[in-house]
Write a structure and sequence with these properties.
Elements lengths: L5 H14 L1 H14 L1 H14 L1 H25 L1 H11 L2 H12 L1 H14 L1 H14 L1 H14 L1 H14 L1 H9 L1
């Protein structure tokens, strides 16, 4: 085979691709249909090797979808309001049904999240308690009034388990 200039070869390939877009698309579609596992594996390997590129593409796509959605919603405010009115309460009801049917699963997910986010929860709780001292105090007083036996039992258990601490506190 005779030597061919790489620039000419590339130009010929570009011209061929431009002239045969439908044919190339059909061949690619047939390959993807015949080899879905192989295509998925290649795509996953590419995304793993090019995480930044894949994330950038995904972010651009999300921005584009959000822009299209916002434009449609701005142009169709009446339809959006009608759908919201029709769905009002349905999402809450669906969530309640799911939680009722999957109590253990929901509890396990919540416990795992709480275990992984102890500092976040503690900071949020401290901020809430600092911001609403009166409300927190009122809730505590109401709880103690409604659960006198439980509070007394907990207090007795603490005193029994921490006699030395309490004696040291009293001596000081």
């Amino acid at each position: 085979m005779a030597y061919e200039d790489p620039a000419k070869k590339a130009a010929r390939a570009v011209a061929y691709r431009a002239a045969n877009k439908e044919k190339i698309a059909a061949v690619k579609a047939a390959y993807r249909t015949a080899n879905p596992e192989k295509v998925a594996a290649q795509a996953a390997a590419y995304r793993a090797a090019n995480k930044e590129k894949a994330a950038a593409v995904k972010a651009r796509y999300k921005e584009k979808v959000a822009a299209v959605k916002a434009a449609w919603q701005a142009a169709n405010k009446e339809k959006v309001a009608a759908v919201k009115a029709a769905n009002k309460g349905k999402v809450a009801a669906r969530s309640a049904r799911y939680r009722a049917a999957n109590k253990e699963k929901v509890a396990a997910r919540k416990a795992a999240w709480q275990a992984a986010n102890k500092e976040k929860i503690a900071a949020r709780t401290a901020a809430y308690r600092a911001a609403d001292k009166e409300k927190v105090a009122a809730v505590e007083v109401a709880y103690r009034a409604a659960n006198k036996e439980k509070v007394a039992a907990r207090k007795a258990a603490y005193y029994a388990a921490n006699k030395e601490k309490i004696a040291a506190r009293g001596a000081a």
